[in-house]
């Protein structure tokens, strides 16, 4: 994939002419879902200490409405239960054969560094180039964040975009969990057979801490490098109205008769994997509901 980002002429030509070369090789993406492994090894004491330290979810920027507090309490209890369950994952790990550059200030801010994004930092360091060589990026996502943002209309007209504040990583527990997953990447790359394919002191992506065991250094890196996973969900949850829900079990928006929401926003929580197949299921169910309500035969 580095050759693709560089638009390497030999690699591009090999694929276009004979369907050979690096672009003809499958399996460029591998991933998995893991709990925080050190919580399993520590008998649960570290986890329980973090849960006490990070509170029950108050102060996450969701306002003071009773329904929001009710949903927040339920949400917190659910996420805590997942963290306490060894068979449930809290981090989604994925890897791909390219050099990632996640720092937005460099003009890249993408999962693959691109030559066109080359720029210089305030210190004069040139970053963003896809330098010669072959790379492997391992990244991780927080599967069940407690941070909750908000969306609001910005004008009485339908033309202006809405105001969106995702409040990424505003809940302290999200940071603590994500830090530990990132730290675990250093263990993954140290184990055979993967370790035999990597240079012991190979180049890291821009801004990555030298010491991957230093949680303070990881914190500073995360604040600069964290990106959306581009899988937005759960802004119009299917819940009872008194718990902050937006749509009924028939996907009808509360307060309306026939306005439905049919997309990933009606999920109660983010799915533990890619949300695409679940969105398909919602669409199929919505079609059945609409046909049933309107007495349309298949």
UniProtKB/TrEMBL annotation:
**Signal peptide feature range:** none
Give the Glucose-methanol-choline oxidoreductase C-terminal domain ranges.
145-283
Q: Which domain of life is it from?
A: Eukaryota
- What are the TM regions of this chain, as residue ranges? none
Gene Ontology terms, MF aspect = flavin adenine dinucleotide binding; oxidoreductase activity, acting on CH-OH group of donors
The Swiss-Prot or TrEMBL record describes its family as follows: Belongs to the GMC oxidoreductase family.
Under which name does UniProt file this protein? Answer: Glucose-methanol-choline oxidoreductase C-terminal domain-containing protein
């Amino acid at each position: 994939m580095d050759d693709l980002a560089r638009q390497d002429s030999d690699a591009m030509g090999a694929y276009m002419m004979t369907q050979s070369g690096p672009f003809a090789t499958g399996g460029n993406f591998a991933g998995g879902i893991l709990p925080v492994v050190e919580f399993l090894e520590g008998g649960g004491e570290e986890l329980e200490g973090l849960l006490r330290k990070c509170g029950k979810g108050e102060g996450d920027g969701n306002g003071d409405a009773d329904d929001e507090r009710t949903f927040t309490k339920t949400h917190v209890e659910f996420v805590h239960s997942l963290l306490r369950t060894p068979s449930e994952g809290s981090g989604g790990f994925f890897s791909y054969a390219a050099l990632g550059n996640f720092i937005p200030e460099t003009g890249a801010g993408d999962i693959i560094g691109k030559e066109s994004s080359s720029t210089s930092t305030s210190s004069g360091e040139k970053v963003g180039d896809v330098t010669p060589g072959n790379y492997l990026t391992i990244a991780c996502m927080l599967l069940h964040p407690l941070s909750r943002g908000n969306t609001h209309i910005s004008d009485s007209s339908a033309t202006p975009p809405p105001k969106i504040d995702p409040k990424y990583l505003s809940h302290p527990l999200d940071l603590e969990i994500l830090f530990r997953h990132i730290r675990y990447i250093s263990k993954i790359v140290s184990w055979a057979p993967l370790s035999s394919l990597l240079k012991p002191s190979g180049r890291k992506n821009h801004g990555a801490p030298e010491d991957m065991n230093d949680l303070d250094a990881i914190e500073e890196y995360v604040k600069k490098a964290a990106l959306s996973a581009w899988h937005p969900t759960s802004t119009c949850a299917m819940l009872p109205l008194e718990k902050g829900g937006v749509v009924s079990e028939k996907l009808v928006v509360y307060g309306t008769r026939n306005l439905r929401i049919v997309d990933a926003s009606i999920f109660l929580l983010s799915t533990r994997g890619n949300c695409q197949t679940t969105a398909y299921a919602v669409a199929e169910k919505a079609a059945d509901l609409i046909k049933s309500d309107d007495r349309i035969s298949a």
